[in-house]
């Protein structure tokens, strides 16, 4: 299974959202910071779940995040975040099929919950980006 690949993606999201929270500038800094901060808590929960599951399966949970793409402008940060959330949904959807084939219903249910979280993140980012140029 690609659970370590997914874990590296969760670490990337945590690092990216912490860095974006710090670097954000402009009139929407406070709102966007709150958005990123709320997602960090979710991603941390996902990372812990994945690390626990990898260890339970006898594997070694990775400590390496995927590389975080550089961004200076809020619009760019939101774009990178959207790509990462879409990637997470795609990864967990594939992992869910594997868990089903493997017969691990508990993992399947947890992955469904993580897909629901990432879908909410994705839709929220899409709503922000959809109105970005309408001022
Ligand atoms: Fe996540
Ligand atoms: Fe997310």
From TrEMBL:
The keyword Iron applies. One of its GO terms (molecular function) is heme binding. CDD domains: Ferritin_like. Keywords: Iron, Iron storage. InterPro entries: Ferritin-like, Ferritin-like_diiron, Ferritin-like_SF, Ferritin_DPS_dom. Gene3D superfamilies: 1.20.1260.10. One of its GO terms (cellular component) is cytosol. GO terms for biological process: intracellular iron ion homeostasis. PANTHER family: BACTERIOFERRITIN. This is Bacterioferritin. It comes from Fimbriiglobus ruber.
């Amino acid at each position: 299974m690609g659970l370590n690949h997914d874990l590296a993606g969760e670490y990337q999201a945590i690092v990216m959202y912490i860095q974006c929270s710090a670097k954000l500038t402009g009139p929407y800094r406070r709102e966007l910071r709150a958005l990123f901060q709320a997602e960090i808590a979710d991603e941390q929960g996902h990372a812990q779940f994945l690390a626990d599951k990898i260890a339970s399966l006898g594997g070694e949970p990775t400590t390496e995040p995927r590389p975080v793409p550089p961004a200076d402008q809020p619009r760019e940060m939101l774009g990178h975040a959207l790509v990462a959330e879409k990637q997470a949904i795609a990864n967990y959807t594939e992992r869910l099929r594997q868990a089903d084939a493997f017969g691990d219903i508990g993992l399947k249910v947890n992955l469904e919950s993580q897909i629901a979280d990432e879908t909410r993140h994705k839709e929220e980012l899409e709503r922000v980006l959809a109105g970005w140029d309408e001022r």
